[in-house]
Design a protein that fits this description.
CATH architecture of one domain: Roll
Structural class: alpha+beta
Shape: elongated
CATH class of one domain: Alpha Beta
Distance between the termini: 22 Å
Radius of gyration: 35 Å
Number of strands: 9
Length: about 325
């Protein structure tokens, strides 16, 4: 019974002096498994937030500095989450050696183009001694390994997820088409308007009579300055064609030719050779950005869920 009373007194931050009088040496605000969180830890945490000192970046992403600085309860929960992570590091044998910590510190100095002495000086200006920094780096490496194993590696983002996100945000169709087309062009710059109309009408008449193939007529009559065999324009995606041509091509059956299409260049007859469904090129260009946003969203959600589940099996006492 006496031993139990002493334990309770220690948890309350009380000890006995040699004269037999009790005095408070530290206020314990929470106990997590066999670790304690003290009032000094809260004060130190606030100091680090204000000075840009040593703070767990993964947990900080789920809070704002302003909230933490004005809410001790949130700080206590933040520190509880840290203790839970450290307990899991031990249980899963993810602890790292001093050599691994030093290796990481060397990488940091090299990537920032500074010496070890300069790093120590910078830390000192923030009120952090080097041994404290080494301890922080060790915990950071271990926690990151834990997060990677338990959270990050289990997040899978498919192309369907990317398309769904893009569509929900921009309200745009997720699929585009790619068209392979050929054309016959009569340039306005080479004819009067009347002669241009007569020339393209004559070509269309020959095409409809089936006396000549589209490719032969293009070779013989097309005035495209960049002419290729058979009048081939190549592969063009939705939005890449002249709007007058695209408005016709979108509903043209594969293998069929159009009527006369007037554009700012001249008069065209087009033939659709192939039509393929493709991914919206805007999504393709933004894939990495979208993936990053989804990863951040899923990470916060799953990390919080993971921590909450671990809290259920941990011993937590908040005074």
């Amino acid at each position: 019974m006496k031993r139990l009373n002493i334990t309770l007194l220690v948890l309350l931050g009380v000890t006995f002096s040699t004269t037999g009088t009790a005095k408070v040496i530290e206020k314990i605000v929470a106990v997590v498994n066999n670790e304690i969180i003290t009032l000094s830890d809260i004060h130190k945490f606030k100091k680090n937030i204000k000075s840009g000192g040593l703070v767990n970046s993964a947990l900080l992403e789920m809070n704002t500095s302003e909230d933490l600085l004005t809410n001790n309860k949130k700080i206590v929960n933040f520190l509880i989450d840290e203790k839970i992570m450290d307990s899991e590091v031990k249980s899963k044998n993810l602890e790292v050696t001093f050599e691994r910590v030093e290796q990481e510190i060397r990488k940091i100095t090299q990537s920032n183009g500074i010496s070890r002495k300069q790093l120590k000086s910078t830390l000192s200006q923030k009120g952090v001694n080097f041994s404290e920094y080494q301890d922080f780096m060790k915990k950071s490496i271990q926690r990151q390994a834990l997060i990677s194993q338990q959270i990050t590696e289990k997040i899978k983002i498919s192309d369907d997820d990317l398309i769904a996100f893009y569509t929900s945000k921009y309200g745009s169709k997720s699929n585009f088409f790619e068209y392979t087309i050929s054309h016959i062009l009569v340039l306005d710059s080479k004819h009067t308007e009347e002669n241009a109309k007569e020339r393209i009408a004559g070509i269309l008449k020959k095409l409809k009579s089936n006396s000549n193939s589209f490719e032969d007529l293009a070779t013989k009559y097309s005035e495209d300055p960049n002419f290729t065999s058979g009048g081939l324009l190549g592969k063009l995606k939705t939005g890449e064609m002249l709007k007058e041509i695209e408005s016709v091509v979108v509903s043209l059956p594969v293998g069929e030719s159009s009527g006369i299409i007037k554009t700012k260049i001249g008069h065209h007859i087009v033939k659709l050779l192939k039509k393929s469904l493709i991914e919206n090129p805007k999504i393709t260009r933004q894939k990495n950005e979208i993936r990053g946003k989804l990863m951040a969203k899923y990470f916060k959600q799953r990390f919080r869920d993971w921590l909450d589940n671990k809290r259920k099996t941990a011993f937590i006492k908040i005074n």
